[in-house]
What we know:
Layout: E1 3-14, H1 54-66, E2 70-71, E3 74-75, E4 78-81, E5 91-94, E6 101-110, E7 113-126, E8 130-134, E9 137-141, E10 148-154, H2 161-178, E11 190-200, E12 210-215, H3 218-237, E13 246-251, E14 256-262, H4 266-269, E15 272-273, E16 280-281, H5 284-291, H6 298-308, H7 313-320, H8 323-336, H9 339-357, H10 368-380, H11 385-399, H12 403-410, H13 418-431, H14 433-440, H15 447-457, H16 464-475
Parallel strand pairs: 12-13
Antiparallel strand pairs: 1-10, 1-11, 2-6, 3-16, 4-5, 4-15, 6-7, 7-10, 8-9, 11-12, 13-14
Helix pairs in contact: 2-3, 6-7, 8-9, 8-10, 10-11, 13-15, 13-16, 15-16
Amino acid sequence: MELETIIGLEIHAEMSTRTKMFCSCNNDKFAKEPNTNVCPICMGFPGMLPAANGESIKKGVIAAMALNCTIRKHSKFDRKNYFYPDLPSGYQISQYDEPVSEHGYLEIIVKGEKKRIGITRLHLENDAGKLSHSTQGTLLDFNRAGKPLMEIVSDPDLRNSEEAKEYAQSVQKIVRYCGSSDCDMEKGQMRFDASVSLRPVGDTKLYPRAEIKNLNSFRSLESAIECEIAKQRELWEAGTPPTIETTVGWDELKGQTYLMREKESAADYRYFPEPDLPPLELTDEQLEEWKKEVPESPLVVYERFLGEYSLSEAEARFFAEDSRFAKLFEEVAKATKNPKTASSFVGTVMVSRLKESGKNLSDSPVTAMHLIELIQMIDSGAISNNVAKSTIFDHMMESGKMPKQIVEEQGLSQVSDTSAIEEFCKKAIAANPTAVADVKAGKTKAMAAIVGTVMKESKGKANPQMVNELLTKLLS
């Protein structure tokens, strides 16, 4: 029997807001002492009243718009009742039958082919705390409790683990582009639940699924889906396909899924409208303003940068993954009309120096104006590309000074005087007799050694084009 895989994903992304979803606690829980970032509201104390975070609602709606969802002007919050140790109130405030958005889609590219994945809904809710298990027992940290989440539920349109991974990575890029979530996997800001089932090819109905809970990396997502597909395939081939829906966990060390419980249904959660929160009413004016903040999708940026700026696939992919670098590149490329050099300085030199210094782009003293002036000086012949990368850029990172000022202070102007460069060339020829003999014998690669000596003698300031022209003339 030929079988096909049916996969749906639920993606939980913590929103990058200043405060939690329904209280004024700081939303940044990372690296804080356990149970210090809490208050009576997010701890579920009796009599405490939640108040919806307007910033969370806005960021959730903008992400939903970017995922091509239909926004509901009227929605509501519901209580999702279940007991779990890290859920202090004994229920989660979520959205059930009237979510803030629904009926969206996302296009992904897998093996060169574009595929549209439907999105059932994006709804808003608050997070639970965190359990830490050890041989001595289980510890509870409620710092995460009450953090604002958006849950993005896909249609069952994915057919293998590769598509699931590509879809999850695409969602991550989009919500980052929107500024709705940082989706930092190492900080637990993005998690996945994957529903997996099989069915005979040609069949249209859905069979009982296994939902794999709390996957926290793309590698785990891919591996867990592959494992569950193999398990279910064995059952189908043995003539005993799954008959009930189950919730399973993923053991990273063993590389196996394991049964946790039978899958809950909506009735088990006893949803009812949240009595402490009014319905969420959005106006046409609000939606129009928020729509202006929705950026191009990463896929559109990728395809546009390939065509408009003739970037390589690797360059376009890099900028499509980070809107901050994409904006910086585009501003520099348009001002200098030199996208190749702009890409090199933004996507390679800038990234490398930021990594070395431990800074973020927002902390960098080097701005678009610095890069525009730097590239214009290279293009005019005032400085060499090598000096710009190896010396001037470092001075800009350290001092924040503009390139022209650094060049004047450090005496880094490019030497374009023919007689001066000719003297450097003659000295380099005299210092490299073996390389000179190789060049005259037709071994053109040996020219690099002579050019290197010229650049060393001139402290990197000799005009490279003039160096090559004069060396060729002198050696002929």
